[in-house]
Design brief:
Elements: H1 22-37, H2 40-46, E1 48-51, H3 57-61, E2 67-69, H4 74-87, E3 95-98, H5 111-117, H6 120-135, E4 141-142, H7 166-181, E5 194-198, H8 217-224, H9 226-233, E6 238-241, E7 245-246, E8 249-250, H10 255-265, E9 271-273, H11 281-284, H12 291-301, E10 306-307, H13 311-321, H14 327-343, H15 363-376, E11 378-382, E12 395-399, H16 425-433, E13 438-442, H17 456-464, E14 468-474, H18 495-503, E15 509-514, E16 530-533, H19 541-549, E17 629-636, E18 640-642, E19 646-655, E20 661-671, E21 682-691, E22 696-704, E23 710-711, E24 717-718, E25 722-729, E26 736-743
Parallel strand pairs: 1-2, 1-10, 2-3, 3-4, 5-6, 6-9, 12-13, 12-14, 14-15, 15-16, 18-26
Antiparallel strand pairs: 7-8, 11-16, 17-19, 19-22, 20-21, 20-25, 23-24, 25-26
Bound molecules: beta-D-glucopyranose (BGC).
Length: 744
């Protein structure tokens, strides 16, 4: 096979977009000096990342490894850094990487739960705690945050995402990056963050993991790229390319995304790592003939470091020697890797002094984990004020496979947990209310997937003895996350059946759901009186849920993703296009109401399902609390603004109920007519406000006409003059609506 020599335009750009201060110049000079001394093999060594099980001390000593992932023994890490810096040819320290996704030892709610807090400050603090814990054992790089937009709850990795909206995702991702990286990367407790998976991994067909995505350029720019761009703006140090292919090109070889957009257009000069084995998997994709071909294509596209598979190690030397690859590509990649090592201060301080670090899982961290878990819980239903539970209750039934499971409530990506640290709802109930309440406990089902009804009788007896049933339902951690997509997203196993049986007792049922995705609950919704959706809430999930159940705290979480009624409605997301025949309740005819042998007609029929309608079960942004909030007095600073000007929008939010609570106030806009059909709503801002009973606050937002911009057919970011609707709202389906014009 013949290879073309390709010289991407940006080979010489290494300081573009980078602050040209002396410090930076000095660093680039140091890199230049090092590069001059390094042999081709030394350089290729830097570009290879080895998995925990695959590295060996000799490889590190010989300078054949630039980074190690999944080694978490602090003694080994210390020895490795000592070998690398004291005995390898150029004394270059190692990047020690780990997936610190929602906690290291102290586990926070899964990212989807984090997004439900709509609280960037909390997310930043939590990520910082995770960084401190991870850094204390020598980790200096995490593969997070994942910022893939996910509109498909079947996809297992939706758990790791911040949901369906690019604005919310961007805000969350930025907060997490700041928390991981701190304001100074050389601090011993700062670790490099990684924006992943570039780009469109969440758009895989059918929600099947690793799957093909087709993303037109306008959608790519309007939705999928935005969080990554926000990451670049806040200084994320690394990027990871995805496993998947988009529009026919595997992400590890996508020169357009990696070079033209990320490097050229965004002028970003951080480190790009491949996903695990993803370079070699391009052979399986049918895109490369062999490992050599894969190594060449990945490097040309701009992957600096190869994770796990050894194609760089095996073939780059030969490719350079036969002039099938330009050595400048190698120099550029190594420069990006060395730059990160310098920025992290690893040349000066490669070895961590564990004594400098606070104890892991300390009281402060647990408090923060509990606070985050409280805010991540979304109350989806509360008939007849079933919640909070009355303090007079004496007998309570605690049922369900997730009521007392310290492992499962932690969720996916928790390799470094210590399950002894977990406090389950049962632990918390016993601790706080054990003396005042009779707790009648039954697992009901051995696991979330179990179909065996052995414990049904015991569970029903527990319910019969009680005034209220708390049913802890959901998914075990392992049926969520990577490679664990589901085609049916109802409660798994015989949970629905058990709920049905429990409802026959006539006792009120509170459903507490721990899950890695939105579940479809239509089959049991009318048998349930209240729902607290807690995603997988982490180490302090138990005390957080118990505080909410008893009203010590009021729920404040809002959905970061649409909950469909049935799986067949997917994809379903709030910022869809209007279409020429948008759904309308006056025209909707349900399947059961269509007369037999009705005359064929399409007029009056719109974009909906005749069986499932057109509304989701719960819309994006939705969440109840123990009080009621009224929205009034929508005020716009102007009815007409000129291009480049600001508009201020405010409304008065009042707590009209009896509990102090937090409301997440959301601002949405709609461009009525544009040169690309606009979405029906777009989230532009949000604010959390706390209100005492009877208290009101004026919430004010400012938008610039630039905030109304979109990518037009020429892929230019433009704001077009015209009419805009605007809402200050409790969720994406309600709110006070106003209107303004943008003029040239
Ligand atoms: C995942 C990445 C992860 C990597 C390293 C891959 O399977 O897709 O998100 O960072 O493994 O563990």
């Amino acid at each position: 096979m013949k290879f073309k020599l390709i010289f991407p335009t940006l080979l010489l750009f290494h300081t573009v977009g980078f602050n040209m201060s002396n410090g930076v110049n000095e660093m680039e000079t140091k890199i230049d000096l090092l590069l001059k001394k390094m042999s081709l093999q030394d350089k290729i060594g830097q570009m290879s990342q080895r998995n925990g099980a695959d590295w060996n001390y000799n490889g590190v000593k010989a300078g054949k490894i630039g980074s190690i992932l999944n080694e978490v023994d602090p003694k080994k890490i210390k020895k490795l850094q000592k070998l690398a810096t004291e005995e390898s040819p150029h004394g270059i320290p190692l990047l020690i990487a780990r997936d610190v996704i929602h906690g290291f030892r102290t586990i926070f709610p899964i990212p989807l739960g984090l997004a439900a807090t709509w609280n960037t400050e909390l997310i930043e603090k939590g990520a910082h705690i995770s960084a401190v814990e991870a850094a204390s054992i020598g980790i200096n790089w995490t593969f997070g945050p994942m910022m893939d937009i996910s509109r498909d709850p079947r996809w297992g990795r939706i758990a790791e995402s911040f949901g369906e909206d690019h604005y919310l995702t961007s805000q969350m991702a930025v907060a997490m990056i700041k928390g991981f990286q701190s304001d100074d990367l050389t601090k011993p407790d700062a670790i490099a963050a990684c924006a992943k998976h570039f780009v469109g991994y969440g758009a895989g067909e059918g929600g099947r993991d690793y799957n093909t995505a087709y993303i037109p350029e306008q959608l790519l720019r309007e939705v999928y790229l935005k969080p990554f761009r926000a990451g670049v703006e806040v200084g994320v140090e690394t990027f990871m390319a995805g496993f998947h292919d988009v529009n026919g090109i595997p992400s590890s070889a996508n020169t357009y995304y990696l070079r033209e957009i990320l490097r050229d257009e965004w002028a970003w000069n951080g480190l790009i790592v491949s996903d695990y084995n993803a370079i070699n998997e391009m052979i399986v994709h049918g895109y490369c003939v062999d490992g050599k071909d894969a190594a060449q294509k990945a490097l040309i596209a701009g992957i600096d470091m190869e994770m796990a598979s050894g194609d760089y190690e095996n073939y780059l030397e030969d490719l350079v020697e036969t002039r099938e690859l330009d050595i400048n590509l190698i120099n550029e990649a190594v420069r990006n890797i060395l730059r990160l090592k310098f920025k992290l201060g690893l040349f000066e301080n490669p070895i961590v002094n564990a004594d400098q670090f606070p104890k892991m899982v300390n009281e402060d961290y647990l408090k923060m984990a509990k606070q985050t878990a409280i805010q991540s819980v979304v109350m989806l239903k509360n008939e007849k004020n079933t919640l909070p539970l009355s303090k007079n209750i004496k007998n309570i039934a605690v049922i369900g496979p997730l009521a007392d499971d310290p492992f499962e409530q932690l969720g996916t990506w928790t390799f470094d947990k210590n399950i002894e640290d977990t406090q389950t709802p049962m632990d918390a109930l016993n601790e706080v209310y054990g003396n005042d309440l009779n707790i009648h406990y039954s697992k009901g089902l051995a696991t979330s997937r179990s179909t065996d009804d052995t414990y049904f009788k015991e569970a029903i007896q527990a319910a019969e003895k009680s005034e209220v049933v708390l049913f802890f339902a959901g998914e075990e951690a392992i049926i969520t996350g990577e490679a664990h997509s589901r085609a049916n997203i109802n409660l798994p196993g015989a949970q629905e059946e058990l709920i049905e049986r429990l409802s026959e007792t006539g006792k009120p049922i509170v459903l507490i759901v721990m899950a890695g995705r939105p579940l479809t609950m239509g089959n049991i919704l009318d048998k349930i009186d209240a729902i607290l959706y807690s995603f997988h809430p982490g180490t302090m999930g138990g005390p957080a849920i118990v505080d909410l159940l008893f009203g010590n705290e009021s729920p404040s979480g809002k959905l970061p993703v649409t909950f469909p009624k049935v799986v067949g409605q997917i994809p379903m997301y709030y910022n869809n296009k209007n279409t020429g025949r948008p759904p309308n309740k006056d025209n909707f005819v349900h399947i059961d109401d269509i007369p037999v042998r009705a005359w064929q007609t399409s007029l009056g029929n719109e974009t909906h399902y005749i069986d499932a309608g057109y509304k989701p079960q719960f819309p994006f942004g939705f969440g109840l609390s123990y009080t009621k909030f009224s929205y009034s007095n929508l005020t716009l600073s102007d009815s007409v603004i000129r291009m480049g000007e600001d508009i201020t929008i405010s409304a008065v939010i009042k707590n009209t109920g009896h509990a102090e609570a937090v409301e997440v106030v959301q601002l949405y806009t709609r461009d009525l007519v544009a040169s690309i059909t606009p979405p029906v709503k777009e989230l532009k801002r949000f604010k959390r406000i706390q209100l005492k009973p009877g208290e009101s606050k004026t919430v004010q937002f400012t938008l610039n006409t630039g905030d109304l911009a979109f990518y037009n057919q020429e892929m230019e970011l433009v704001t077009e003059p015209g009419t805009f609707h605007i809402w200050i709202a409790p969720d994406s389906d309600n709110g006070l609506q106003g209107k303004f014009e943008v003029k040239k």
